[in-house]
Specification:
215 residues, mainly alpha, two-stranded antiparallel sheet, 51% helix, globular
């Protein structure tokens, strides 16, 4: 199956399925709709491309729920809409007990390289995890603790196509006032989103999520 076939299959799935809707939140925050649409496009496309990749490699995907190796030393770039998405989700959607665990980890985030939103090996903000957390996959054996898979077995690494990256970017670029196919194409080729990222681990999540010491 080629790129065109994958694109058509992804488009068909997107037309026939819908993502989870947060109607009141999205009505109050139009940017949230654009962000969740971008994530939906990316996840759907990745699922299609991964199935094709599994057939080519005839190998299993190592990544799975509870893996968490990537979360142990994350170097994650995030855009402003992604930061806002995390704040929204952590502040309004996490149940009380889990929110308290995340709060504790956020307040102590400088004591560990572990992502503060990873609780017992599971991402607490999974629906709004950044694009950088979604794109890389490892085939074969699961990553060993502290393994840099880029160096140890680069052939096991996989990322989605540039075409899917473009479609995901096109869903986000209007949030920066960039509209029109030509303008968005230029911004994508110039790596506009890449150049407008911040380090996730350097964000003051305690303040952003309202986790004051006395709360």
């Amino acid at each position: 199956m080629g790129k065109a076939s994958n694109r058509k299959k992804t488009a068909k799935i997107l037309r026939s399925t819908d993502r989870v809707r947060y109607l009141e939140d999205e009505e109050a925050n139009p940017w949230l709709t654009a962000l969740l649409n971008a994530y939906h496009i990316q996840e759907t496309g990745i699922a299609v491309e991964l199935e094709e990749e599994k057939k080519k490699r005839r190998n299993k995907l190592a990544c799975g729920r509870g893996c968490g190796t990537c979360c142990q030393r994350p170097i994650i770039p995030v855009t402003e809409p992604e930061i806002r998405g995390i704040i929204w989700y952590v502040s309004t959607k996490l149940p009380g007990e889990l929110r308290e665990e995340v709060k504790t980890q956020v307040l102590n985030r400088h004591k560990s390289l572990m992502c503060p939103f990873c609780v017992e090996g599971v991402c607490s903000m999974y629906p709004v995890r950044p694009i950088a957390c979604r794109i890389l996959h490892v085939f074969g054996e699961p990553c060993r603790p502290n393994e840099d898979t880029y160096l140890t077995r680069p052939r096991d690494m996989w990322s989605h196509s540039r075409d899917l990256g473009r479609r995901t970017a096109f869903a986000l670029l209007p949030l920066y006032g960039i509209t029109g196919k030509n303008n968005m194409e230029q911004a994508f080729n110039a790596r506009f989103l890449n150049d407008n990222t911040r380090s996730m681990l350097e964000q003051p999540w305690d303040k952003l999520c309202g986790f004051g010491q006395g709360q």
